[in-house]
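Checklist before submission:
- one chain only
- standard amino acids only
- sequence pasted in full

Submission:
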Amino acid sequence: NNSWKSPHSHSSSSCLLAIATETTAADPFTSAPPTRTSSTASTTAITPPGKNPIAALGTYIANEAKSFTNKSKELYSNHKRCNAIRSQQKMGQRIPYRDFQFLETGREDRGKVTTLAFWTFFQPKNLYWVIMLNPGMLPGPFKASMEGSMQKRVVQQMRGNAVLRTMMEVEVGGNMAIKAG
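Returned file contents:
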């Protein structure tokens, strides 16, 4: 039975709250002081002022949906143009080489859409990995933006691998020199 109490004793929850409100880490991305989103110690989170993660996520989703809609419209307009070129061919008109190339691109895009539909309906869990590992399977309007980001990732990965390989060779070489000496 411990009846002694400090004159500064607090209940455990108010003590945690006092500690949580007294200690704040500076945000490394902004010079403004951090703000708290909650007053309880267990759910306290620091967010930079003006950076609402829910709003950022909503903006990202809206932009991606708009981009997907625009690219889908472009794909459909390309399909309609291919149909117009094919109807010219059926009427016996000669088509220029650029239209022939456009027809070939349209044929490839239709095959890619069919492949994506297969993956979407029969293997939806693996669709993300299939697209990430093979961005060339996307139809023309979708492929351009994907290839740019994939090329950046590949270059970054190659640079990282080169740095790690060099560091490992230096370490192994240093160990060999120590053993030989």
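Reviewer check: The mean pLDDT is 73.
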